[in-house]
Design a protein that fits this description.
By secondary structure, the protein is of the alpha/beta class. It has two domains: about 180 residues, Medium-chain alcohol dehydrogenases, catalytic domain (Quinone Oxidoreductase, Chain A, domain 1), CATH 3.90.180.10; about 140 residues, Rossmann fold, CATH 3.40.50. Helix content is about 30%, strand content about 25%. It contains twelve helices and 18 strands. Strands 3, 5, 6, 9, 10, 17 and 18 form a seven-stranded mixed β-sheet that branches. Strand 14, helix 9 and strand 15 form a beta-alpha-beta unit. The two termini are about 15 Å apart. The model has no long low-confidence stretch (mean pLDDT about 95).
């Protein structure tokens, strides 16, 4: 089968490798759609400890497809079934796993991060992931392209729960990439009165307006425009959907009284110590937090939102490539051209 393997920093190759063999309790997924994430880009740009020349890694963790085989003992699934996969699983139980926060446990494993992932024609789903409930059936009317986007939208839903966005709120999203626009879609679903999307890239802001004419866009520093839009009150919810330290500082300054600030985009190593005016947090009674990854509950909730048509995600896809073009696809995503890039397979 063809697969995109990461050997080292800036070294990804599409090669023919053996189709995975599955054991007891495991599932073999025939990949139909795999989306490219910022994590995939960071792994390529900076390298990753689980991807070495001696043991290259098939990356990619946003996936949907058809079950090709089931191992002995698998009773809840059958070959031919359409599914999407939550990539993070826990080989060992812990207090966090029991509480539903296994995605925060340091011992978690992830397809495309620790194990071979989605940029391949077939993916082995380990027994621990199958038992934990990481395999989700998808309805016939849900496309594979949309189902593969459940994973990133579930991460966004995690942040939405922390932000407690509600009717009438003014929401400022800093970053107009695919994740930022997912935040915008979720915020509108929650009844936000104003959804403001901010970026330095005019092309992405134009796409945001095409997706939803109600989205208000601001290019460059949002301070002056936000002041006009809110009568000087600031934003009730601010989400930094970008890996930019200065915008985390700026988010605190732009928040309204009783505002909620979510640091969603992680910062590069060595650049994560950020100056914050804690008096602003204190006197405006701000809640400042961050979120990462998603629980299986978030994943199921998001799949339901997509299945019911409450949130459309397929219109975030602006480029589709074959597995042979995987390197070019990742390069395009790295250049921030368009929005979501995916790899499509024949099933």
């Amino acid at each position: 089968m063809k697969a995109a393997l990461l050997f080292a920093k800036d070294d990804i190759r599409v090669q023919d490798i053996s189709r995975p063999e599955i054991g007891e309790g495991e599932i073999l997924l025939q990949t139909a759609s795999a989306s490219i994430c910022g994590t995939d880009i960071r792994m390529l740009k900076h390298g990753h400890p689980y991807a070495t020349p001696e043991k290259p890694l098939v990356i990619g963790h946003e996936m949907a497809g058809v079950i090709a085989e089931v191992g002995a003992g698998v009773r809840s699934f059958r070959p031919g079934q359409r599914v999407c996969i939550a990539p993070n699983y826990n080989p060992v139980s812990s207090r966090l796993v029991v509480s539903g926060d296994g995605h925060l446990d340091t011992g978690y494993r992830a397809l495309g991060i620790h194990e071979h992932g989605a940029f391949a024609e077939f993916v082995r789903i380990p027994r621990d992931a199958v038992l934990q409930g990481n395999v989700f059936p998808i309805a016939d009317h849900v496309s594979f392209a949309a189902a593969a986007l459940v994973e990133p939208l579930a991460c966004v839903y995690n942040a939405y729960e922390k932000a407690r966005t509600g009717p009438g709120d003014t929401v400022l999203i800093i970053g107009a990439g695919p994740i930022g626009l997912m935040h915008a879609k979720i915020s509108k679903m929650a009844g936000a009165g104003k959804v403001i999307v901010n970026d330095v890239n005019p092309e992405r802001l134009a796409i945001a307006r095409q997706l939803d004419a109600s989205f208000i866009t601001i290019v460059g520093d949002p301070g002056a425009e936000l002041e006009k839009l809110t009568g000087g009150q600031g934003a009730d919810v601010i989400i930094t959907a970008c890996p930019v330290a200065t915008m985390q500082t700026r988010a605190i300054e732009l928040a309204a009284i009783n505002g909620r600030v979510i640091f969603f985009g992680g910062l590069p190593k060595g650049a994560s110590v950020v100056p914050l005016d804690t008096n602003i947090i204190h006197y405006r009674q701000l809640l400042v937090t961050g979120t990462t990854r998603q629980s299986l509950r978030h994943f199921q909730k998001t799949l339901d939102l997509i299945s019911s048509g409450v949130i459309e995600v397929e219109n975030l896809i602006t480029s589709t490539h074959s597995i042979a073009e995987a390197k070019a696809a990742i390069t395009q995503a790295m250049a921030t051209r368009g929005l979501k890039t995916r790899i499509a397979f024949e099933v």
